[in-house]
From TrEMBL:
Protein name: TRAP transporter large permease protein
InterPro entries linked to this entry: DctM, TRAP_DctM
Keywords assigned: Cell inner membrane, Cell membrane, Membrane, Transmembrane, Transmembrane helix, Transport
NCBIfam families, sorted: dctM
PANTHER family in UniProt: C4-DICARBOXYLATE TRAP TRANSPORTER LARGE PERMEASE PROTEIN DCTM (PTHR33362:SF5), SIALIC ACID TRAP TRANSPORTER PERMEASE PROTEIN SIAT-RELATED (PTHR33362)
Gene (UniProt): dctM
UniProt similarity note: Belongs to the TRAP transporter large permease family.
Sequence intervals crossing the membrane: 57-79, 91-111, 131-157, 169-191, 239-258, 270-290, 318-342, 349-369, 394-419
Naturally occurring in which organism (per UniProt): Zoogloea oryzae
Length: 426
């Protein structure tokens, strides 16, 4: 039955069946073949998504779209430009900084890549950046958003690994997310200097205090969201609702750039995005239930532990496995497929599951802009009108740099665990 489950899943995936459908069909086939009870499937699909923490996902998607439509990204770009100044690579640095700040609002890499791309692409192309470099930088910058809280990825990880709470994961992802962003800034600047990008700047540097005043409402959003959770005023799910109402006030009352027609468009688009995410979760829950009932992942974990690998080789093997999987699968699918296998291994070696969630999510961040199926890279390549292949010479440098940061967090766990311990979450 174990072979049937994974063999059918792999066959359907290679045949071009959507990943969520492939997982659902493989799970249904095994339930039928093993006579586990077909009538249990509707209940499993429902219980797969009827979980309180998952309510945060569609609401954070709405929040991110509201801030994008309200023009918050543009004000943050002006503020970041005032901070960075005019120099080689300054626009690339600004793009990364803006993506990191927006990550503190929505936690969705593709959405923030689209928001940053809409604002930064025209100015970066005008300044002489190659289209392929621009697409790669913005996609890589957007990947930090699943590390910097609030993060949809951490919400799903906490759902599958109850021992790791959402506040602890949010706190643990903060420093690795910032380090990842700083690493990308260093690489983008070095490549810009080496290849002479942005040699001439026509626009004057924005005034610092005025740009800070204009961006203040957007910059306050992450502070309100994270500060409210830290103070205990609201849960992560309630924080998403606060973010939505705050965004509506900023867009409709402060900036007056958001109309009711725009709000309707946001609700429609967010429903489409959320339905895709939750459909993957629902169908993956069938796959997960079938495999857990059969004990498939227990067998695989026992086989891996039976190889006799010590702690460090096992950890590096897991990193390599997830890196390869991230080239072909989306983050949610990877969580549902691999976490039931990896958590028993982590428990066997006594690894902290909050730290383990951070390094797994860093792998997912790499996968978001790693060819051939990096979802952020798909978004930015479409916006820049370039092929994904043309971005590879630039993206590989950013992948190497972010992988180095991931290895640093892997071998120095306190980088991730210091903040949640200091805040009392561990």
């Amino acid at each position: 039955m174990d072979w049937l489950l994974f063999g059918l899943f792999a066959g359907l995936m290679l045949a071009g069946v959507p990943l969520a459908v492939a997982m659902g069909l493989a799970g249904v086939a095994v339930v039928a073949a093993a006579d586990l009870g077909m009538l249990s499937l509707p209940t499993n699909v429902y219980t797969g998504i009827a979980k309180y923490p998952l309510m945060a996902i569609p609401v954070f998607v709405i929040a991110g779209l509201i801030f994008e439509r309200a023009g918050v990204a543009a004000t943050i770009v002006r503020f970041a430009s005032a901070l960075v100044g005019q120099r080689r690579g300054s626009l690339a640095i600004v793009a990364i900084l803006v993506a990191m700040i927006l990550g503190g609002i929505s936690g969705s890499g593709p959405a923030d890549s689209a928001a940053v791309g809409a604002v930064m692409l025209p100015s970066m192309l005008k300044a002489g950046y190659p289209r392929s470099f621009t697409a790669g930088v913005i996609a890589a910058a957007g990947s930090t958003d699943i590390l910097i809280p609030p993060s949809i990825a951490f919400v799903i990880y906490s759902l599958l690994v109850p021992q790791a709470s959402v506040p602890a994961l949010f706190a643990a992802g903060m420093i690795p997310g910032i380090l990842s962003g700083l690493t990308l800034i260093l690489v983008a600047w070095a490549l810009s200097v080496k290849h002479g990008f942005e040699a001439e700047v026509d626009e004057a540097r924005p005034p610092f205090w005025q740009s800070l005043k204009d961006a203040g409402w957007g910059l306050a959003a992450p502070v309100i969201i994270l500060g409210g959770m830290r103070s205990g005023f609201f849960t992560p799910t309630e924080a998403a609702v606060v973010a939505v109402f705050y965004g509506l006030v900023v867009g409709m009352v402060i900036y007056r750039s958001l109309t009711w027609k725009d709000v309707y468009g946001v609700l429609v688009e967010s429903a489409e995005i959320s339905s895709v995410i939750l459909t993957v979760v629902a169908l993956a829950s069938v796959f997960a239930w079938g495999s857990n009932t059969l004990g498939t992942f227990d067998h695989l974990a026992a086989a891996l532990l039976g190889t006799g690998l010590s702690e460090i080789p096992m950890l590096l093997s897991i990193q390599l496995l997830l890196l390869i999987a991230g080239m072909f699968l989306d983050a949610i699918s990877i969580y549902f497929i691999f976490l039931p296998l990896l958590v028993p291994i982590a428990t066997h070696f006594g690894w902290d599951l909050v730290w383990f969630g951070v390094i797994i999510t860093m792998n997912m961040a790499l996968g978001q802009f790693h060819p051939p199926l990096g979802v952020n890279l798909m978004v930015t390549c479409r916006m820049a009108n370039v092929t994904m292949e043309s971005t590879v010479p630039w993206v590989l440098w950013m992948i190497a740099a972010m992988a180095g940061t991931m290895l640093l967090v892997t071998f120095v766990p306190d980088i991730a665990l210091w903040l949640p311990r200091h805040l009392g979450y561990l």
